[in-house]
Amino acid sequence: MKKILLFSGVTTLLALGCFLTAQAQQIAGSAGEKTDEYIRLMMSKKHIPGLSVAVLKEGKILKMQSYGFANIETRSPATNQTVYKIGSLSKQFLAAGVMLLQQDGKIDLTSPTSRYQDRLPSTWQGISVRNLLTHTSGLVRDAPDFDPLKVRPLSDDIKAIYPLPLDFTPGTQWDYSNMNYYVLAAIIEKITGANWAGWISKHIFERSGMSQTRTCNMTDLVPNRAGGYKSTSAGWENAEIWLALRQSGAFLTSITDLAKWYRMLCTNDLLKATSKKQMWTAMKLNDGKNTHYGFGWFIDSVNNHLRVHHDGGVPGFRSDFELFPDDMLSVIVLTNVGSVNAERM
Asked: What pLDDT, on the 0 to 100 scale, is given for residue 24?
C-alpha cells in the first residue's frame, strides 16, 4: 500500500508540475512580463495576499519584485523591504554559524555533542555535531510539550526531550528534527559565551549587510512587518501567532536581505569555499548510503545541475530558497499565507 500511495503522490506532483509549466509557457511577452503574469495567476489561484520574489544570477539581481499586500487590513502593499517570517530557511544561518566556528578552530564537527554541552543523557553520547547539522542524530522532531504561546529558555526546550529515547542509532538513518537546531544554538552559546541570536546577528547578518533580518518577536516594533494569513471558505483570516521563539525557524527577513545573503554566498568573504562545499554535500549514513541533506540545506539536482534548497513554513507564512551553486543562480520566494507551496511555485 505504501508503494502505491507513494507512486500516486509522485505522479500527481509530476502532473501538476507539467500543468504549471504549460500555463507559464502559454503566457506571452518578455521574461519579466511572463514572470509577473505567472505570479499574479498563482496568487489568484492559490489565494496569496502578498509575495516577494528574487531571481539572482552571478551575484546580480535579474529580477526583484513584490506583489499584493503585506497587510490586508491596512491595505499596505508588499515591497522589497517587507519583512516575512521564513521558518526553516533559518536553519542555514545556524549551520553557517557553526561553520564559522569551525573555520576559527573552535568546533570539531566529528566531536560528540557532549564535548560542547554538559550533563547530556547517556543515550546522546554517540551524537556528533555533524549528526545534528544533517538530521542523522536520532533526536525526536519536536519537544512533546511544545506550546507556541509559551516563552521559555532554550535550555528548558532541550531538557524537555532528555527522557525520550532516540528514534534510531546516530548516523544510521535520516529524519528531519527541529530539535537538532535547538541543540546547535545551545552549542553556539556554549562556545562563544554569547546569546546565539546576537552572535549570529553580529557575525553573519551585520557582515552581510542584512539590516532587516532578526529573530521573530511579536512584541517589538518591526518596520515593514508583514501580517500572516490563512485562507478560508469565507476569505482571509489572521493566522495563529506563535510567541515562542523556535531556533529551528527563528528569523524574520526581507527579499532584499536574502539577496544580500545570496551575494555573500557567491564569495568566500564569510564562508570559505571548503566550508560551503561541506554544507552543500549530502550526508552519508554509516552504511555509506547518501541522504538528501547537507548542513541546513536539502541537496539534489535538476537536469544534472546541483540544487541546494530549503523551504520554510510557520502559521501565516511559507517561503523557499533555491540555489544552484555551480550556475551561481538563485530563486527566492516569500509569502504571507501558510497554505501555499512556495517551493513548487
From this structure: 42
